Inverse folding.
């Protein structure tokens, strides 16, 4: 799973039926210090009620998404599976903290 | 899944059966600021997109599922939505 920051939402009227009644969010991968790391992408939010600014966990594997949502035909690759309360990564011993 | 802008069309006479009757479009993947992210790619269209439109796509095996779950065609990128708006924080 990727640690990501929710940047915003995408609105689409015309879309594949699998995306109907599901929220689509713009998410930015972040590192352990919560700094942007990598390209932004889109993830479906089915039940987590995440909003812009939230730190979330994103599952990026289609088979996992299909098992979780109980539909073997879903063309969805990324799903927000948790809203993160805290990340604790102690600085390595002997090295400078970051 | 990711954002993209349709920049053109592709026509192929000879192709695998699974691609028969499928609309192929050239798409430039974009990030959330609508700046290009990576090289353009060819995607199959499932929502009647046209050149110039902002869309979102799904890649890999899920692209084939988006076209047909029972008979997945040989595609690895599919346009699955026409974007009305992208609302960003701040």
């Amino acid at each position: 799973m990727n640690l990501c920051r929710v940047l915003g939402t995408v609105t689409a009227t015309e879309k594949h039926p699998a995306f109907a009644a599901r929220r689509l969010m713009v998410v930015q991968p972040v590192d352990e210090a919560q700094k942007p790391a990598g390209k932004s992408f889109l993830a479906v939010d089915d039940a987590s009620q995440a909003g812009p600014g939230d730190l979330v966990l994103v599952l990026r594997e289609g088979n996992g998404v299909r098992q979780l949502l109980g539909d073997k035909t879903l063309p969805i690759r990324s799903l927000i599976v948790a809203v993160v309360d805290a990340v604790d990564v102690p600085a390595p011993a002997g090295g400078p903290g970051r | 899944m990711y954002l993209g802008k349709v920049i053109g069309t592709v026509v192929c006479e000879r192709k695998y059966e699974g691609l028969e009757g499928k609309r192929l479009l050239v798409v430039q993947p974009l990030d959330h600021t609508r700046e290009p992210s990576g090289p353009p790619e060819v995607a199959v269209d499932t929502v009647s997109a046209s050149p110039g439109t902002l869309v979102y796509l799904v890649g890999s095996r899920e692209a084939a599922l988006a076209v047909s779950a029972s008979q997945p065609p040989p595609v690895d990128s599919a346009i699955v939505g026409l974007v009305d708006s992208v609302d960003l924080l701040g």
Observations:
- Chain B is about 10% helix and 40% strand.
- The longest strand of chain B covers residues 2-10.
